[in-house]
Amino acid sequence: MELTVNTGTLAPGFYEFYVRSICSDSDKSFWTGPQTFFIALPPAVCASVEIDVATTSPGVIDLCPGESCVDLTAEFTDSKDTSTYTVLPVIFAPPFPFTGGTQLPVTTDDVWSAPFTLPFNFCFYGVNYPTVNVGSNGVITFNTQAANSNCPWAFTQTIPNPGFPIRNAIYGVYQDINPAVDTAPILRSINYQILGEAPCRAFVVNYYNIAQFSCNLTAPLQTSQIVLYETSNIIEVYVQDRVSCTTWNSGSGVIGLQNNEGTIAHFPPDRNTGQWEAHNEAWRFSQTEIQL
After folding, report:
1. What is the reported pLDDT for 40?
2. Is the peptide bond before 220 cis (omega within 30 degrees of 0)?
3. Residue 265 pLDDT more than 60?
4. φ, ψ for residue 52 (rounded to 5)?
5. Do 19 and 37 form a contact (C-beta atoms < 8 A)?
6. Average pLDDT value over all residues in the chain
7. What is the model's pTM?
8. What is the pLDDT of residue 288?
9. SS (H, E, C) the chain
10. Which residues have a Cβ under 8 Å from the Cβ of 66 and sit 6 or more positions away?
């Protein structure tokens, strides 16, 4: 038997429900549950203004032709302070491809890229940053690292934690992966892309078909994507495949954000440090405080 329940319009977020059978007032089953589901967010919006008017000469727009009114259509972002974030699911439909970008020089185990200059400043936990470092272990940080210096792999702590090995960072998915493992004939890549036009560009980092350290090819390959959006400062993490290597580093993996001090962190439900598994899921980290 199928049962349909109209819940009305629900805001994006996570929900639980319980179910029981009612045959009569005196014949009712026990409650079962909770069952969980979520309402996904729509795609990120970029600010824009459109003007639909005729021109009297090339390159000249008459805003008041014949003293008539002109309609302006605007789509805007509700810019907010980045001191705290809301974490909500989005539909797994990566806005950018996992392949086709520029290969980053992080092709060996446990290394950082050189500081990468972003095409736009990005505000993270209240600070504007012009550069990022990309690590080979599924993490980017706004703390400057030297090229080819060690990208720490060992952790079992949950976030937030002042002793966490990498802070001021976006984890997506942070785990001990090893891009040096040969996956041929399957293509593997850690690459970046800068897509779109100002003020609506995106900086994209892809971890595509990367093996895990120790488990190597005995465990499925890992694929995920981190997206930083210009202007809105929204962060998205797309996880196509994450399977824990339980025989190494306690199978630790984490999705989330953490500030520089390790005192504040934001992460999806059940995606803090652990042995969880995920396929075709996505998360958005957006600001929750209004910028005055």
Report:
1. 46
2. no
3. yes
4. -110, 85
5. no
6. 86
7. 0.79
8. 75
9. CCCCCCCCCCCCEEEEEEECCEEECCEECCCEEEEEEEECECCCCCCEEEECCCCCECCECCCCHHHCCCCEEEECCCCEEEEEEEEEEECCCCCCCCCCCEECCCCCCCEECCCEEEEEEEEECCEEEEEEEEECCCEEECCCCCCCCECCCCCCCCCCCCCCCCCCEEEEEECCEECCCCCCCCCCEEEEEEECCCCCCEEEEEEEEEEECCCECCCCCEEEEEEEECCCCCEEEEEEEECCCCCCHHHCEEEEEECCCCCCEECCCCCCCECCCEEEEEEEEEEEEECC
10. none
d(CA 263, CA 163): 10
pLDDT of residue 108: 96
Mean pLDDT is highest, among 32-36, 46-50, 252-256, for: 252-256
Burial code (b: 16+ CB inside 10 Å, e: under 16) for 94-117 equals bbbebeebeebebeebbbbbbbee
**Would you say the C-alpha torsion 148, 154, 157, 163 has a positive or negative sign?**
negative
Interval 223-260: pLDDT, tens:
999 999 999 999 999 999 999 999 999 999 999 999 99
**Are the CB atoms for 143 and 260 separated by under 8 Å?**
yes
Query: Tell me: the pLDDT tens digits for 100-122?
Result: 899 999 999 999 999 999 999 99
Closest to 273 in 3D by CA, of 237, 240, 247, 249: 249
